[in-house]
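Dear Dr. V.,

Thank you for agreeing to look over these. As mentioned in my earlier message, I'm a first-year student in the group and I'm still getting used to reading structure tokens, so any feedback on how I've presented them would be very welcome. I ran two proteins. I've put each sequence directly above its structure. The first is here:
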Amino acid sequence: MPHHTALIALLCVGFVMAFVLGLLAQRLRLSPLVGYLLAGVVAGPFTPGFVGDMTLAPQLAEVGVILLMFGVGLHFSLRDLLDVKNVAIPGALGQIAFVTTVGSGFGLWLGWPPIAAIVFGLSLSVASTVVVMRALEERRLLDTRRGRIAIGWLVVEDLAMVLALVLLPAIAGALGSGEQVGASGIAMTLGWTLLKVAAFVAFMLIVGRRVIPWILEHVAGLGSRELFTLCVLAIALGVAFGAAALFDVSFALGAFFAGMLLNESELSHKAASDSLPMRDAFAVLFFVSVGMLFNPAIILQQPLLVLGTVAIIVLGNAAVGYGIVRLLKLPKLTALTIAASLSQIGEFSFILA
């Protein structure tokens, strides 16, 4: 396949295979997401036939995550986040600590180095905000109290993973992998990271809260639907890129804050509906690219390792999530919603690994 047509080939084959297999999954009363993932397996390097460009797929997936996290923000205001902070913050941190400990222990039992075991445990502890949002939307639970708690919980997880991504090199050095870094070095790295995240949040709350809705309302006043849709996409992608380039915050988190501030505008519903087709299209590419990473042979080569990992992801996350919510004296239905939301891993797991 000529390099100059690799993007076209990936888009064409990815969308066609995702449609065919997504339709088949829907007919079998499964989520279309299953079909999208299988489309990625078909287009991946571990199965015969067409092989997509493995350097392009992650970048297309990143665009999908940006637009999907922007959509999460459009449905989730800052007020919602503060409203559930008493559950989301202790719950998410407790769940991450527990599952990371269990996953790290599993890695050490397998004979892995300490840093590899820690990364493995962290990867198993963070669920996908994107997947949960789509599931809650399909069941019309996104605007309920338990839906807001679930999204708030996962946003806290995402923030924790941003810190982990910056701290991992320092921790690796402290554990003897590469250059030695002492406790003061790790503390300085953590402090600098927190300062950059705080600067980004402050900038968005002071400047972004005024500028973003004003731009959208001004463009809406021009009466051009095309320019309005383009404005929404420019805000989502522009803030995401600016967050990463200027503040070292992840693309996804930048897009989430852009959407969350845009939620305060009276035009937020129009922005959400106009950007939905683009968000859905790139969401499909995200799941296809994840499927491309999967090697089916690993199930036969390491069945016990796969089963153990799945057990920690599905049972470990769900059990600790359910337990924490019940300890906080919230209803059983809320606890079950949180447990189901946490029993998977997502985009930050792949970025960490």
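The second protein is here, in the same arrangement:
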Amino acid sequence: MIDFDIWQKGLTAGILTTVAIASLIPVARKFQLLDFPAGRKDHSLPTPVVGGLAMIIGILGCYLFFDLSPEAPLSQFLAFAVAGGLLIVVGQLDDKFDLPWWFRIVVQIIATLITSTWGGVRAEHLGPLLGLNDVSLGMWSIPFTVFATVGLINALNMIDGVDGFAGSLCLVALIMLAAAANYSGNTALTSDIAPICGALFAFLIFNFRFPWRNRAKIFMGNGGSAFLGFTVAWVSFRLTQTPDHPVTPALALWLIPVPLIDCLVLMLHRVRRGSSPFKADHNHIHHLMRDAGASPMQTVLLLALFSVFTGFIAAQALRHNFSAATLLATFVVCCGLWWWLTAKRERALRLLRTVLSPFHKRMRENSPAQGKSPPIRQQP
């Protein structure tokens, strides 16, 4: 049963984030903190990119209102606040001035080092991958933590191309992380995740497309995507590296599989073609979904549901004594299958069209020929 205090924290962070968004939107317009339509960006109007700033205000503000977890040292939260703030500030500067990619990577490494050394949140073992005993990382603990965190940050940044997409995947992952923490008895971590979920939910209300609003009112910006990726990694390490409430690290792969698989496979395809693995293109999963006929909302909902499904199946597998090695091997197999499928774009589109065909059939049934009024198209 979820404690009432947890609901209070989530609601408080959501209210603070909502107030922050309402206050920051006019500030963003005044100082031109906007994402302008250009190049690969297909939104129709300049949009404020202060969602990440609003979320961290809501989260840290909530932590000030409530007592911090007694099981976590103060340095852990201070390190998180400093590192998260650094990512948000640099992200806002990147949105404004388009900073070099290598500079962003350096800042992400510094932020991870802050939480892994000062805060003490890092990967120290990989769980029982090779047998009954945990595989200790030893001297590779901090390098692995940096690699995993920076990788997740950039995977999330690369996939942030549809309104509500990256935020929804993170919200789903965080809710499942909270459920795993609660199930393992780590209620303190569940309580600490609640403000993050509340702030993210409030942001998504302004970031989603709705029938009465066909565009996002605010974007999270590069700072927001970096902060969310960093936060999901921070929470995952706290969940899987707590000796009193052990949860196998392999589970975390299945709680946010879409950006991880998409990023790994796409980078391999780019290297195979002789391109830079960081070169932008239109081959991400949300691009394929769009070309297969999915609307932005269908893309968000279907892939968020896919994440829920994989997380649930992985959790049930662990409950039924499947090994961590089996979970890891299955994840690698899924990466291999997606790599094979997307090696030929048309092959991937055929599969996605098949998956989407029930939605297309319903749309045809509700078309003007059936007496429905056609939707009004907005000109870009």
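From my reading of the second output: Strands lie at 34-35, 47-48. The two ends are 48 Å apart (CA to CA). Does that match how you would interpret it?

Kind regards,
E.
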